[in-house]
Design brief:
Elements (H helix, E strand, L loop, with lengths): L5 H14 L10 H9 L2 H8 L12
Length: 60
């Protein structure tokens, strides 16, 4: 499932980093915190690897 905005993509990237142990889970805030808990590593990777071209900063 592709990200709908660049903000969603960035949150998924932060959550993926924490899930892999590259950053501390305690550093996560907001959407990335809930994404890390509720999504698998594969789902996060799919969201984070979406191309940014043409994506709005925030989805409406």
């Amino acid at each position: 499932m592709p990200a709908k905005s660049s903000a969603q993509q960035k949150a998924a990237g932060a959550a993926l980093s924490a899930k892999r142990g590259e950053t501390k889970k305690s550093e996560l805030k907001g959407a990335s915190k809930s994404m890390e808990k509720s999504m698998s590593e594969k789902q996060l990777d799919d969201l984070a690897s979406t191309k940014r071209k043409g994506k709005p900063e925030h989805a409406s």
